[in-house]
Amino acid sequence: MKYRISAAVLLVMVAAFIQGSVFEYIEILSVRPNFFIVITVIIALLRGVYESAAMGLFFGLTMDIMMGKTLGWYALLLFLVSIPISMVNEKLYKEKFLVLFSFTFLSTLAVETLFYLIIFLFKDYSILHHIFARTILPEALYNSILILPLFKPISKVYTILDNVDRRRNRLSA
Amino acid sequence: MKRIFTNKIIIFVLIVVLLLTLAAVSHNERSRVNIISNIVSIPAVPMQKAVSFIDEKISSFFSYFEDVKATKEENEQLKQRLSELEQDVRDIEKLRKENRELRDALNFKNRYEEYDFVGADIIAKDPGNWFDVFTIDRGSKDGIEVNSPVITAYGLVGRVSKIDAFTSKVVSIIDMDSTVSARLSKSRDLIVVRGDLELRNKGQCRADYIPPDADVLPGDTIETSGMGGIFPKGIIIGKVVKVVQNEGQYDSYAIIEPVVDFKRLEDVIVLKKK
């Protein structure tokens, strides 16, 4: 359990570092990918409901803190998006390109569109189509491509953690 | 089994309600609940400083070669221009310029004498695609307060929106949540400068409520009005790029090019009240 918590904290810190610093350099047309959404989808595809929801919540909260605005919106959205994915993940061929691509694409569309609707509540929705075409859609595409090289290494890390847990359980038994 | 299912739903609803409450409470920039951001910001400071340092070194290394070429070309142009100007420039012009600069400097000092200047480095920029907020390496321990104005030698950058122990968040003037009471330097008409999501990517913002009789043209300067109690009067914001008539409305708006280049901003000055 200790390993799991340390790994989770490390993953949150690495994600924060990548999102805040590294991704600034890979912006295309002033749009950068959202590593927190990508990693939430990966974990939701690999793990159970509780772990995925908890990780989604922490990733979202970290994103909220880093943005320096209202706390809780990304936390809520990533928490909510991780639950349905983790509920169906056992029925999916997780390593298939189409599964990874479509889940990330749809999750990004859902999270970012809802985020836009929330932050623009009582303001102005007249530029929704513009924002959708210029920001949300490119980000969804960007995230969907980004998940492809990231899924296998992260899944390997979780396999190692599972093996460590199993070995420790055997020893203690 | 039924109990576990019920518990799961209770946990789910509880978390959702908690997050909604957190969002409602933290919406106020001065809310004490924002203290939880220290959990991330304090451990992140050394990492962000290291990244910012490496980034600066790499950028300056590559820009050195570009600069040499550009400087050579510029030098040639300047030499030519200088010889032309030498004939035109009169001593009186020089004296007038000097006089104006000295008067401006004196005004600047007097205008901001109620503030202390705190230099700060930008250690992280906004992580998403929605806002234009950045993190500086000064926090409550340096006496920074919420709404402290942030400037550079060129003009207005924004204001401090949240403070942690060692860092602060600065909302720039091109952020969609930013509004600044301003005036047109030439005509002295009052306007409101605010961020716009569409213009943000170009590093621009807009000026609203320009009266129909206002004499405003591209190239005109816009400065803070001093109203609203956050920004002192007379800080340069930017120049008008384009004036657009609001369809079916009385007033017009203008697109503003800030004097500060937000893409290349590395350090700022925070005005701290004495």
Could you give a short account of the major beta sheet of chain B? 6 strands, antiparallel, barrel
Number of strands of chain B: 12
What fold name stands as the CATH topology of chain A? Arp2/3 complex 21 kDa subunit ARPC3
Q: Number of helix segments of chain B?
A: 4
Sequence of strands across the biggest β-sheet of chain B: 1-2-5-4-3-12
What is the helix/strand order of chain B? HHHEEEEEEEHEEEEE
- Unreliable residue stretches of chain B: none
User: Runs of chain A with pLDDT <50, length 5+?
Assistant: none
CATH topology of the domain at 112-273 in chain B: Thrombin, subunit H
Cα end-to-end separation of chain A = 15 Å
CATH level 1 class label of chain A: Mainly Alpha
User: What's the shape of chain B?
Assistant: globular
SS content category of chain A: mainly alpha
Rg of chain B over CA atoms, rounded to whole Å, is 23 Å
Write the CATH architecture name of chain A: Orthogonal Bundle
Strand content of chain B: 25-35%
Distinct helical segment count of chain A? 6
Compute the average pLDDT of chain A. Answer: 86
Largest β sheet strand count, sense and barrel closure of chain A: none
Distance between the termini of chain B: 64 Å
What value does the average pLDDT of chain B take?
Answer: 81
